[in-house]
Amino acid sequence: MKVTDERSDRLCNLYNDVCSYLTAREQELCRRRAKVEKLLAWKQKLDEEEREIERLEKEAVQGVASRRASSVNDSTVSGE
User: Fold this and answer.
1) How far apart are CA 26 and CA 32, in angstroms?
2) pTM of the shown model
3) Which residues, in sequence order, are CB contacts of 33 under 8 Å at separation 6+?
4) 44-77 burial code (b ≥16 CB/10 A, e <16)
5) Phi/psi of residue 54, each to 5°?
6) H or E stretch covering 5
7) Dihedral sign computed on CA atoms, order 33, 38, 41, 47
8) From CA 35, how far away is CA 31, in angstroms rounded?
9) What are residue 12's phi and psi, to 5 degrees?
10) CA 22, 28, 30: angle at the middle one, nearest 5?
């Protein structure tokens, strides 16, 4: 009987060790996932912000170019 009890105890200890290891591994994976998801969300936000700024810059350049063209047309018309 004693041999069976020892085997059972060792098996139980092994099971507990494996459970502890897997739980720790799972928690570390969750932490890593959370960090990566946070970084990806931050990157996406910055990419969107960059696209918006580029759109505004393009709009500003087009506005300046159209004013210059308008100004040149006005001076050409008045100079004729």
Assistant:
1) 10
2) 0.62
3) none
4) eeeeeeeeeeeeeeeeeeeeeeeeeeeeeeeeee
5) -60, -40
6) helix 2-79
7) negative
8) 6
9) -65, -45
10) 105
- More confident: 19 or 5: 19
Rounded CA-CA distance 74/58 in Å is 24
| DSSP string across 14-61 | HHHHHHHHHHHHHHHHHHHHHHHHHHHHHHHHHHHHHHHHHHHHHHHH
Q: Which residue type sits at 39?
A: L
Q: How does pLDDT run across 22-76, given as a tens digit for each residue? A: 999 999 999 999 999 999 999 999 999 999 999 999 999 999 888 887 877 766 6
> Rounded CA gap, 62 and 68, in Å?
10
- Token pair belonging to 70: 């308008």
